[in-house]
Amino acid sequence: xxxxxxxEKARTGLRLLFEKFWILRSKEPEVYQQIRERxxxxxxxxxxKFGFDLIVHxxxxxxxxxxxxxxxxxxxQGFLEPRDYAMFCCALAFTENRTVDxxxxxxxxxxxxxxxxxxxxxxxxxxxxxxxxxxxxIKQLEKLSILAVVEGxxxxxxxxxxxxxxxxxxxxxxxxxxxxxxxxxxxxxxEEILEGEWxxxxxxxxxxxxxxKLLFSPAVHRESEQDPDFAYIRNFRNRLRDDMEEHTxxxxxxxxxxxxxxxxxxxxxxxxxxxxxxxxxxxxxxxHFLRENKQEYLPDTLGNIRLTAVTFEQIISQLHAExxxxxxxxxxxxxxxxxxxxLSALMKEWEMLERDPFTGEYLIKPLAGRIxxxxxxxxxxxxxxxxxKTQ
Length: 391
What we know:
It is a single chain. The chain is α+β, with helices and mostly antiparallel strands and about 400 residues long. The chain folds into four domains: about 10-65; about 75-175, Arc Repressor Mutant, subunit A (Orthogonal Bundle); about 200-260; about 280-385, Orthogonal Bundle (Arc Repressor Mutant, subunit A), CATH 1.10.10. It is about 40% helix and about 10% strand. The protein contains 14 helices and 14 strands. Helix 4 crosses helix 5 (about 105-115). It is globular, with a radius of gyration of 24 Å.
C-alpha cells in the first residue's frame, strides 16, 4: 500500500533516515515497511529540498546525506586517530573481494589490511596500539552490519595477537560506499569532493544548501554582511518555518545573526542541547553571565563576542565562586583551567565558540546567546542547595 500524504509516520521515517546511516530490513522491519509505503512522498521531499538521493533496496533503505561542509561530529566517534580511518578503508577493500556470506578468520583480515595499509610505517600486530586500532575498526564494521560475527570476540585481539574470530561478509558490504561523479582517486581533497556534489544540481542550489545547513548544524550563523545563504533564510523565513513544522518535529527560529531548529520533544535518536552531562551546567551559567553583563561584553556586527584567554578564565573563576557549590564534584573540586578547557571543547562542538588561530582569542558565537541558566533566588551558594523557604 502506498501512502500519498506526509503523515506522522512519514515525519518519523524522515527523522530516522537523517539520524541513521541506513535502515536495515532484517533489524527494523516495521520502520523499513513504513518508509517503503511512503517512499514517493519522502523521496520527492528530500530531492526537492535537499537534493539528496533516497535509495530503497530490498534489504535496506538509505538516505545519501552530503553536507555543505564537514563537521567534527560527522566522523566515526569510536575512532581516535587517522590510522583508524586508513585501516577502515583497507578493511572495506578486503570485503570487496569476498562474496556475501563467505566466512573468513580475523587473521585473514589482518594479513590483507597489513598489505594494503598506505601509512609511512607498516602495521605491526605485536604493537598494542595497532591492535587496538583494528579492534575499533572491526567493531565499527560490526556496528554498520558490514561484517557479522560467526564465532569469537574481537576484544580479545587487543590482549593477544594470536586471537582468532570467525566472520562473514553481509549483503550490505556492497552498498556502504556511495557513488561519485568521477573516480574517487581523481579528487585531491575533501573540499573537491564536496564541490563536486553541486555539479549535478542544476537548479535551486541555494535552497538545498540552506536546508542542508539547517539540518546538519546546531545553528546557521551569518558569516558576513552579504552572506547569501543567510539572506535566503531571511527572505524565505515564513516558508522555511511552515515547511519545517509540517515535515519535521522542529521549530524554526531566526535571529539577527543566527537561524536554528529547536524541538520540545526528546526523542531517543536525537542529540540535543542541553543533555545530562555535568558540564552543561557550566555552559548555561557562562551564557547567562554574558547575558547579564552585556554592557561589558559587547558583540560585533555579526553577533560575536571576543574574549581573551585571561578574560575567559576570569569569568570561569567568578562562576565557580558564585555557582560552584551546585556543580558536580568534578567541576566543584576541579581546577578553573580544566573547567575552562572542557567548557570551550563543549561549546566548540556545538558551534557556540571558535578560537582565533592568530590571536588565541575566544570567539563566542551568537548561538550561545540562545541558552541561559541560573539557580533560583533561594539557592544557598554556601551549601550548594536550594532552600525550601525564602525571605
